[in-house]
User: What shape does this take?
Amino acid sequence: MKNCSACHEPVDVSDRFCETCGFLLIKDSSAMATFQALTEPIFPNCQKCDSINLEADGFCNQCGFRNPIHRDRFEQILQPGFAALSDRGIRHSQNEDCFAIAQLADGRSIIVVCDGVSSSMNPGMASQSASQSACESVQESLKANLDPEAALVQGIHQAQLAVAKLASISKGEPPSTTIVAAIISDCHSNLSNSDPSNSRISSVQVTIAWLGDSRAYWLGSTPETSCQLTQDHSWCEDVVAAGELSQEQAERSPQAHAITRWLGVDAEDVVPSLVTIDLAGPGRLVLCSDGLWNYASGVPEFYQALHHPPGTEAKVIVRQGVEFALRCGGQDNITIALLELQSKGPETS
Amino acid sequence: MTTQFNAQVYQNAYLPEGSQEVNAIMTITTDSESDGQTGSRISGTSGTPRVFGVICDTSGSMEGVKIQSAKHAIAKVIELLPSDAYFFIVTGSSQATLLSGLTLATDSAKNTALAALRTVTANRSTAISTWLNLALQQFKLMPGAIAQALLLTDGQNDSSDLNALDKALNACENQFQCDCRGVGTEWRVSQLQTIARKLLGTADIIADASAMEDDFRAILGQAMSKQVSDIALRLWTPQGAKVLFCKQVSPEILDITNKAKAVSGQIADYPTGAWGNQESRDYHFCIQVNAGNVGDEMLAGRASLVYSQNGVETKVAETRILAIWTDDEVRSAKIDRTVAHYTGQAELAQVIHEGMEARAQGNFEVATAKLSKAVQLSDESGNEATMKLLRKVVDIEDAATGTIRIRREVRKEDEMALETRSTKTTRINR
Assistant: This one.
């Protein structure tokens, strides 16, 4: 017998979703270990009144205050050059962002970042269910030799099913979330066979799919060689693209940040935007929620916020990125996933 | 037979900085079918016995058409009683008489009771305390049963009986529920409402004695639909919190704040009486909590239903009431529409009460202002039943703006109907 990681009710091992709350039940045991404890409190005693009588989800049975839970700030480090961090921020009482990262045995990497829509019901569960099911699905598809674009389309379809499952149980506005997912395929091995010295400037193929305003950036060695890889599905982006308003005018509008596409049963169109690009390393691929890019929207500012000398560990960069957003006000949840793309061959210098 | 309880909370959990008041509406519905996986069940021991007590005024003022109609309507109730129910009949004047003692509603028991009923005549004065005490005695013969009564009277209680009535009500509270009906217009609305509220029942007017039979039939139908009794609404609140009020707000307003029974320092039980299947009620909680900082989230209350049987306590349908402090005014300024609706319905009942009181004292200026507001509120909330009653007391020119004229000549029964029924609320479409 195991328990649902969201509502802690007992669930059947063979079930795909929790019967009580509709939450995705994670199959992969290592991912399970990462995600299961997320909703549990960090400290054994209440941070307000010191009582040790805490509910499984952090609420104090004495004073009622919700204590920090692991979900409020959680980090995953897969390699020195591959890490992700998600943080509640300052102004929100809960972290409604989520991420899932994975690396296949053949060296391909998967990153998913989701940002639950605050006005919907259970946005935190939506982002967690969506990121986890997308990541699981993409891994399976790639192992079954699907090409990256097809794998991402399938992954986002699975994420949509997971979010829809939540809607069937929770009442009110159906749960919804943004999603940005990337597959990073290592292409340098062909080069390294013919000329080992060339392996340092190998190129990688990155395929990205998204719905909403969570973004992907490529950070090269200079601002000039960096770029934003996704284009938001937002009111602001739409009116600017249509030539109705200038970027500046649109950003001043109160609805600038309203997203026009998302995952959820109330979404009209859940076929993601897709892009595949070859990137010449070295550099860093960053996927993030708007809790970060709101404070550094343009590429030069974003580059500046996350710039670190070569060789800096990914976990250091994501932590400092979160610190940067918190210093700027932390108005929203902040999620950053970062993969360093460097030479795969031996260092020659 | 099992009764499945489902609960849902409606609230805007977001509070502005420094705010301490948390409002929430809890909707509780019951269902006999176990089709859904959600919700939780309470099973009464199959066929919890139901006892129905009839308490009928036979004081001198009942003489004539009123006692004839009452005897006729009670006879109908006896005939309609299901054979697995128990019943008794108490008649009362200055003292109470056990016309028919507690018995299973077999055909022969019914015939005996009907024969006794035919001998009833009306005389002497009114001491309601004695009637209730005798009824209580009968209910106590069968503890654990679903105990419900119907009390019919036509006049005021003797002033010498007022203290005794208070005492009797305290003894009867939580022992049985009682719907109260006043026939004619010589009885006092506030007196009957006091009895009904204490005994978790309804109070209403039967202006015309000929309407009695239908009304009694409806009361019996309701009573026989009950499956489980003594359900308490359990509310946990955080340390330092205070429950400002707890009210049933649908189908009608019943303030149960003072009925709270402390279970522990942070937990109180509020009685809700018996529940039938396919019932739905709304409760309004108003809780004062210690203010949190912006970004803090607090569990301001945990509400559930509790049923005790043979010392075993079953807790079902737990829901949460939250408080989240934010500096986002757009979020904190929004009042949940269900909370807003019932706040409006409570105000409607209040202004009708105040308006009618002012009117009775001849203060037509205050009465006009209050009833004008009442017309606006019932118009806004689509409470057509209350609007219909208001129309008999005021002339309405424009309901939306509350432009009205007080009628000087109003039939007594219309006044009393408005007063007794003003606590009936409407629901909103969700």
Summary: Confidence is low (pLDDT under 50) at residues 34-38 of chain B. Residues 50-227 of chain B form a domain with the Rossmann fold fold (CATH 3.40.50.410). The radius of gyration of chain B is 23 Å.
